[in-house]
Design goal:
Layout lengths: L1 H40 L7 H13 L6 H17 L5 H11 L8 H18 L2 H17 L4 H13 L3 H14 L4 H9 L3
Helix pairs in contact: 1-2, 3-4, 3-5, 4-5, 5-6, 6-7, 7-8, 8-9
Amino acid sequence: MKNEIFKNFIIVGLIILAFLSIIFGSYLPLIKAQLFIDALGSVSQVKTVEEFEANFDKSFKYYSPVGDEEITKFLLNNIIQIVSQQNQSEAVDRKLTTYIEPYIFKNDVRHLLGGTQLYEILLTKYKHQEDIQKVESYIEVAYAIGPKLPPVLYNLLDIYRFTGQTQKAKQIGETILQYWPDDKNVENIVKGLPQ
């Protein structure tokens, strides 16, 4: 009798576990993804940054254990495209940047490279000193996570050259040449750096 009760208890527990797995592993991420797709579909009707934020807040604020990383990556790429357009005001560019920035995963190299790219665009367009600091902070965290990744190393080399940090640029250039000794472009950059 006790064995029968125990077996039934285990079976009920497994059914509940399977049900919760479906809810948290499939259903909630599906709803979150659908909210994001709906937000993308209606973005052409958005007229203000506030409407843009409210549109995407629906997917960001919807609870799901899976999906935030992907949604952030896709929306970050969209915002990079929007900010890179020349017909935008600085205020709009900054608001969009401020909106996406809290969602950027600080332990995801792709997110960090996206943050780097976003601030590089702002720096190119508006030439603010604080944008240099943001670019450096994003790329240096990415470097700490992925010190051998080509996009990180090449971005870091460009940023150090741009900011006049020739010793750091030289070190990163030499690191790149250790991994890719045939890269003549980097070899010429390192040779051209002041001693």
